[in-house]
Amino acid sequence: MVHGVRERASLHRKRASHLATSRVLGWTFIFTISLFSDLWAENRNRAFFFNTYSDFLRGDHWQWISSEEVSRRLYVYPERFRVMGMGNVSWPERMSETIVEGTIKRINYRWADPEYPYKLKNIQDGPFPWLHVAVVDPDTVLEARLEKTPDLHRSLMEKFRREGIEMCAVEVEAETKHVEYTVTYRIPKTGLDLSVEQGRAAYFRAFQDEGDSIWTMKGIYIDETVAPSCGIPPGQPLMLVGYNQGTLHAGLIKMARIQGATVRYYPVKKFEIFKSDLTVSDIRVHEDRVTVEVRNEGSLVAEHVKLRLSFPDTGKELEAVLPRINPQGEISIRFNVKAGPSDRTIVAVVDPEDQIAESNEANNKRERKVGLFGW
């Protein structure tokens, strides 16, 4: 009898212990899910900078991203999330502004044609030498109404600073009185040079829209304390691209005087910058040739990539140009040259003139020295 009571008591203790453990695990699971949800709620809005605007203006058009690759990068987000931003295409003499809008399910690219009649057009692809987009949860939207504002940019920037916002995606629907905007048609590979005789007119076409109109504008605000790390030129914390809903004239908004405007903005906490990253992964020496392996460890396509092979001991130097290297792609280049008996070192440098602003400029060079038993 006593033995049976002890067994039942032991069984009750085990059940109570299992129940307590289950409760602890249950609360731990709920806490973890809650914590994860809080973190997701705080960080779900994110900005993606595919190359930077500063490097684009400096003439870095040797790297770019396609619309297909953008979608591949963003597919992890829910289909209902909003996408908005801007960029430029790399078409010669037609490098005009592109408005990015839509949702993860369907991203639309609308291009401001710099040629008459200057209409906004839907395009399927770039390529885009720079593209800044924000992915935002529509549930995080904040809304404001502006009335009779002589300078839309200034009013918005002052509002965001008062609210302590460092970065946000912005969309505006405005009843305008006067809009000044520009369309980019040419940025040379040597970069923007405003000291030329024509000044800005050598690169941008300027327009004005007078009278009552309805304009749709989209952009990204980046506080000047954060802007340098995002590759934004000084003095341009708020970049807006937009179009006249009636005429479909479009471009980069320089100034807007409005009668009224509805503003929707989405605070963004995190951002990522994507660039190409070129590296020499291997040098192989054969009897009558040298093979160099070049790899793009970055996220953008790199094109017109120069590779220099040199023999410092004898002064021999050869160069090759690689038409294109895709992200995470690798190319073998064979030089029909023979290492002589006096050559003790071979050096290969990719992008020796730093034409491409990569994410890592310190890994472009590789050396190989002759060993005790030869190469």
Core attributes:
alpha+beta; Immunoglobulin-like; seven-stranded mixed beta sheet; five-stranded antiparallel beta sheet; 375 residues; 18% helix; elongated; disordered N terminus; 3 domains; 4 helices
Q: Please, could you describe this protein's structure?
A:
This protein is α+β, with helices and mostly antiparallel strands. It has 3 domains: 1-43; 46-273, 60s Ribosomal Protein L30, Chain: A, CATH 3.30.1330.80; 275-369, Immunoglobulin-like. It has helices at residues 2-43, 53-57, 67-74, 152-162; strands at residues 46-50, 63-64, 82-88, 97-103, 107-112, 120-123, 130-136, 142-149, 167-184, 204-222, 238-244, 250-267, 270-274, 278-285, 290-296, 301-311, 316-325, 330-335, 345-350, 365-369. The strands form 4 sheets. A 7-stranded mixed beta sheet has the order 6-5-4-3-7-1-13. Strands 2, 16, 17, 19 and 20 form a 5-stranded antiparallel beta sheet that branches. Strands 8, 9, 10, 11 and 12 form a 5-stranded antiparallel beta sheet that branches. The radius of gyration is 28 Å and the shape is elongated.
